[in-house]
Amino acid sequence: MVLHKLADFEPNYLETFADDKDIKDLEVYAERTNEKIGKVHDILVDDTGKFRYLVVDLGFWIFGKKVLLPIARTHIDYNNNRVYAIGLNREKAEELPEFDESIITDYHYEEHVRNIYRQSDMYSDAVETSDTLESSTPLETSGVLETPTYVESTATTTLPTTKPTYTRDTYRYEHEPELFALNDENHQTFKLYEERLIASKHRRKMGEVRVSKHIEMETAKVSVPVEKEHIVIEHIIPENANQKVFRDENDFNEGEVTRMEVYEETPDVRKETFVKEEIRIKKVVERENFQTQDTVRKEELDINSPNLPIEER
Predict the structure, then answer these.
(1) 3-class DSSP state for residue 264?
(2) Distance CA 296, CA 278 (A)
(3) What's the first-to-final CA gap in the chain, in angstroms?
(4) What residues make up the domain containing 94?
(5) Fewer CB in a 10 Å sphere around the end CB: N or C, the chain?
(6) How many domains does the structure of the chain reveal?
(7) Is 290 a domain residue?
(8) Residues with Cβ within 8 Å of residue 123, at least 6 apart in sequence
């Protein structure tokens, strides 16, 4: 089976974690001794996206070594940002093959890892009981598996004396729930969801305003006062009219002429261009608040634990 790094299989895997806590930020402790043994370096998942192993960097515990820890051999405590490794001690950590990211994790490599975790002293805590057990439920069989043989005891129950046989083609992780089935007691997590109204806005074109010029024809009137001269000849009877005057014959001047110039004004009308007004075009943004309402749903936690103490954190 092909294993994948969690981030390669699902880049947005953090969205499915409680409170967006990254399991790769958690430190690893030995469950029995509470001794810090390293840090979660990565997570390996199968083709269906199920967790199969934690890659644990043992740090200074075993300097620079990374090993695989089956997911069922963990207890994840998000409240304290810790992962507890069940049954892992220094001896077994030294025996485990080193995990190398540059090498493909194949069936034979996994079998090497699983065989170490299958050893009886790794499960002594998990299977020990003070009750008398006549038999234990064998692993799931698929026709090619041998039925494990259990030894009846009044004190403790031991592991099978004969190991089931698997092949590359017949092995399934479900065959070994003690290695790969999540412990529901230690890993129950679910999220409460709520709906929210998310307000956003988008810009759309309502239309356009087109401003242009055109020419209109109209009749214009203008008034110009003009002057025009003419000659007025007045005949006046003097006071000494009909009185005898003595004049020399030479006083009669035939052909005597008096000249007077006569003028008139004529209108001179022409067209000239003037600036009538100036047009400025600008946009003004008007702002207003748009309010709307709708019905949203949210989930609330219901705890049914009659007469049992519950602590909420």
Answers:
(1) strand
(2) 55
(3) 39
(4) 4-180
(5) C
(6) 1
(7) no
(8) 87, 159, 178
